[in-house]
Amino acid sequence: MVRSRWQTREILLGIGVVAALVFILTFYIWYQTEAVRLGLQIRDCKDQIQTFKEEIQKLEINKSGLLAPQRVEKIAKESLGLIEPDDHDVIYENRGNSR
Q1: What's the CA gap between 14 and 27, in Å, rounded?
Q2: Segment 29-83, tens digit of pLDDT
Q3: How many CB atoms lie within 10 A of CB 76?
Q4: What was the pLDDT predicted at 94?
Q5: Residue 18, CB-side half-sphere exposure with 13 Å CA sphere
Q6: Distance between CA atoms of 73 and 87, rounded to whole angstroms?
Q7: What is this structure's pTM?
Q8: Is 38 in a helix, a strand, or coil?
Q9: How many whole angstroms separate alpha carbon 48 and alpha carbon 35?
Q10: What span, in angstroms and rounded, lies between the C-alpha atoms of 86 and 94?
């Protein structure tokens, strides 16, 4: 009786082992590339957050400059023509709890 060098069962087992190794290697490479991609994306997001924080700080400084009482008073007097009220034009309201 002549026995073939490889039986069908052994060939299928070999193909299964090779397929499992290829699958594991493919999964490992995908996992590593995803980890690197996510790391780069996180770094980009952190850079963007830092840029936004700096922009917010600049806008806050600009806001405080625009809302400065001296500037508002100057615009009110020069551009709008407003004047200081006389003492008899001012009415004071008592907001305290008086009994």
Answers
A1: 20
A2: 999 999 999 999 999 999 999 999 999 999 999 999 999 999 999 999 999 898 8
A3: 13
A4: 83
A5: 6
A6: 18
A7: 0.57
A8: helix
A9: 20
A10: 20
